[in-house]
Amino acid sequence: MVTEGQDRIAVLQARNAELQRLLEVSREALGEMRSKLAEASAPPHTFATFVQAVGDHVDVVSNGRRMRVSVMPDLDATLRPGDEVLLNAVSVVVGVASPERTGQGALVREVLDEDRILVVSRGEDERVVRLVGGDARGRVTEGDTVIIDARSGFASERVDRSGVEALLLEEVPDVDFDAIGGLGGQIERIRDAIELPLRHPELYRQHALTPPRGLLLYGPPGCGKTLIAKAVARSLADAVGADQSYFLSVKGPELLNKYVGETERYIRTIFERARAKASMGAPVVVFFDEMEALFRSRGSGVSSDMETTIVPQLLTELDGVEQLGNVIVIGASNREDMIDPAILRPGRLDVKIEISRPDASSARDIFSKYLTADLPLASAVLDEAQGNKADAVKALSEHAVDRLYADPANGEYMSGALLRNVVDRAKTLAIKDVIRGGEPGIATRHVERACEQELAEARAVAASTLREG
Question: Residue 346's closest CA among 185, 209, 159?
């Protein structure tokens, strides 16, 4: 009997423990349900933007209304201007919300100070806003796009617009005039136009002479127009004593946009970016390639009426460039006759330089930039020059020039790009010979074959163009 009683007591104790456990679980579940019910029935929080702390209170903007409210003590020290906060039913700041990543886009026109910027939105509507987090000078520049909340007066972040940024191939050029061959006369004229006003501004002021605002480089493709534009940016940096320069390359056809006003906005953005870089003391070159694709003569009937608004926008920007002496506009074109005359008149693109096809003398100079003594040369070439690599390279260049210009009609195919391709082809042929087990080094036969292949391709392209025309 005693044993049975003890067993029964043990069973009852176990059952009692289980009932206690179930009671605790039910109590916890009831507590959670009460908490959830309280949360569900609580009044909604209101989103607001924190502006500043004032003593024990803070200023916030909610739905365009600025208010001074109380704040929970543990939040006051962590808030910064522009943060999203939560207000309870009695307008007390009780929490911090995640920042809003959408809003109205605006273009930065000017950085005013460390936390204020002047932006343009909805056409030409200018507005001064504060940048969340401050450090405006380090985070944004003129021409950038930012997200703004017009009701609170804050710009939350900078956004990249691929439609504009892809057009601005901003770079620091490493090309100087010494790397360009066969254009000595044109380079001298360019340097006179852009370097003299920067190196001797007092003389220009004494003579009441206005420096040129821009250049037009015209001529056949592949003759060095883009290379010259990059060298101009490097030359500007040397002339003003700057550590670096910027080259904003704009491809004409890519600037066109089917939406009304977008192309004009792109042009404004380009010049705003140039002014921002120039204001920091860095020289800037704005380079428009294939200029005739954008700025055709108005009223020509060759294309749509888009140029009737694009051309005036560029003219407006060109007329404002004189305020910054270290910004220069360069246009390149294969068809300068199609560009609107208002752009080419004196006072805008003042200097017009023809980049013509190289003659035999210019070709020798161009070859000297690419066919150099540090390249491996075949033993036969070195033997003919009695081991002098400089003379051997010169002999190869002479051989190439004689082969290319043997027929006077070949002159119409010549370009700097073709001459460089001759050297590259010769290098490729030499490499293939080494792979097949032949003698290493560039030989005369490689140069001859490269010249023949380039001329054959140039004639084929010219014949195809003539048939299509």
Answer: 209
